[in-house]
Amino acid sequence: MEKICLCPELVWWVIMILLYFTCIVFEIASLSIPRWFSQGSGTYRWEGGLLKPYPSETLYKDKSCDSDFHGSGYCDMFDRLWIGGIVYFVFELISLVVLLLCIIFTILQITGKRAFIPVSAILIWVAVGAHLIGFATWAGLGKMLYKGSCDDFYTSNGDKPGYLCREEGATIGLLIVLYEPVIALLKTILWYNSRKPPVKEVQEVEIKYHNPNENPEMSSRVESSREIVSESIDISK
Fold this sequence. Notes:
Number of domains: 2
Shape: elongated
CATH topology of the largest domain: Butyryl-CoA Dehydrogenase, subunit A, domain 3
CATH class of the largest domain: Mainly Alpha
Organism: Stentor coeruleus
Strand order of the largest sheet: 5-4-3-7-6
CATH architecture of the largest domain: Up-down Bundle
Distance between the termini: 73 Å
Largest sheet: 5 strands, mixed
Number of helices: 6
Protein name: MARVEL domain-containing protein
Helix content: 55-70%
Keywords: Membrane, Transmembrane, Transmembrane helix
């Protein structure tokens, strides 16, 4: 059995399948967890999920808001959260599908179809990019704050939404941002080290001789010809 980095290939491919699976579990968990962030303090503190407040069943896009009372920044926050949540949801589904394809292709590699090794090495980076785009869009639109105060619903002049503090969902989303590239890098290293060395074609070197006597093959032919001529002369006599 061939080895990669001092370990049998089969062991590495099984490890990659397990890593893909753990990443899928994390991504499904990020979509399922109801609490992504919190804002405010005391009795005015509220929590929200990816597409709706927690524990409300009203989606952000259906949330009523009086901009004259709350300020345009507070009402604008729900639109931003809805757009960011949809973008994250769509790109996370893309990432999940790609990870499933990576598992399928890795199983095909185990059966001997080595052509799928570079394909899965490319696809895992697609999954990394899809999750990164989704999470960065959500965190940017939602003004996610990982350290600091999130007590204000909007800025002092009321025209911009306030910051949001991360909860379980956003924490898992950030964990995937850090975890998934490690898997992709490991897969790339394994692909690079599993490549077959190119077969070098042995080319016959043509040696040019200025004198036929310098060529051993030609010399033997000349000697044979001389012997035949000598025998012919003897017979004729």
